[in-house]
Amino acid sequence: MDEVTQQFIVGNEMAIRLAVALLLGALIGIERGWVARRREAGERIAGVRTHALVGLLGGIAALLADAVTEWAFPLLFLAVAGSALAAYRARMPLSQDYSITGLVGLLLTFCFGAIAVAVDLALATTCAVITAVILDNKREIHGLLNQLQAHEMDAGLKLLLISVVMLPLLPDRAMGPGAALNPYEIWWMVVLVAAISFVGYFAIRVGGPERGILFTSLFAGLSSSTALTLHFARLSRQHQEFSPLLAAGILIACGTMFPRILLYCLVINPALLAPLALPVTAMAMLLYVAALLIWRSHRRAAKVDRPELNQNPLELRMALLFGVLLAVIMLLGHWLQDWLGDAGVYLLAATSGMADVGAVTLSLARLSHGTIAPDTVVLGIVIAAAVNNVIKAGMAATVGNPGLGRRVAVPMAVSLLAGLGLAWGL
After folding, report:
1. Are the C-beta atoms of residues 331 and 364 closer than 8 Å to each other?
2. What is d(CA 216, CA 335) in angstroms, rounded to the nearest whole number?
3. Ranges for the MgtC/SapB/SrpB/YhiD N-terminal domain (predicted)?
4. For the purposes of burial, counting CB atoms within 10 Å of the CB of 54, is it exposed (0-12), middle (13-18) or buried (19 or more)?
């Protein structure tokens, strides 16, 4: 390739990058101009044209910084910032608008133009689109903020604490008796479970009570199907006419637990998906079909308010307890497997399933990387899920009214037998 051709290609690429910088500025300018569309000409400080030109100027500043002097970009950035500050300062007494969102958006537009030319087109485009979306959804964002409660904000900050702060600090190596514990992996699993619970909580929160039992039950399987079972069982005592729908809701929540199991295995050890998919899917579908039949037969029943599954979407104390439980199960799994072989793993799964399916699923999925055979892990996970559903069926039968107990226990038993039979056959 001769020098002329090479220069042509480079020049063509730079022209494209400058065009993208201009278009990204125009994108943000369109959003800003639409917001101020009712103002008279000249009242807008920066509209479509200004933002488009500022994006182009950012791209040119990046070119000048590379070809002429490294001071070109900071000097032009300060010039844009100074001009914008002067314009906003002059306009402020008339508009009584003290928001600096428009100023920040203009400066970001300059930076996006520079990124498009000097760094990466995809990165600049992504940032510009996200910025436009944020600017365009002022009312929705403020509405969500007004609806946010103190304990929910606290939960979000705690989730960030255990994920982006604590997780990177933990050693990522095998430790403890028999090298069975990896602090980083254990805490990463805690973050995974906490994040799913957090998302499940806000799915219910956003859906609202008008969605009724169906919506609540579907997403409760992501956070706490046991809590929902207990609440619906108590509710059936107070409102016996709702018992069929409450039973269907319990079955839906318990069925949603199984996709969560598959998600855990997908993240920890994807090799378990193939042997685990059939028994887990069969158990889930049997519960869903039973719930659908009950629901269709009693669809005229009224809705009830969603249950308060958790006053706080994420308790750090509970996350720590889960980490301890996970470590204990991993140690017991290592020792029982050495002592009793596969029978020890099944005993561990049965006893752990009485309290929590997530912990034993994550533990066995991790141990399947080398110390336990995949077919043993699959049967152990199914045993844990079956035992957990037996416990919830017992709660429905003892806490709820007799009709609720019968409607829940029969599908649970069928699902249990089918899952164990398929897992044993594999």
Report:
1. no
2. 40
3. 18-142
4. buried
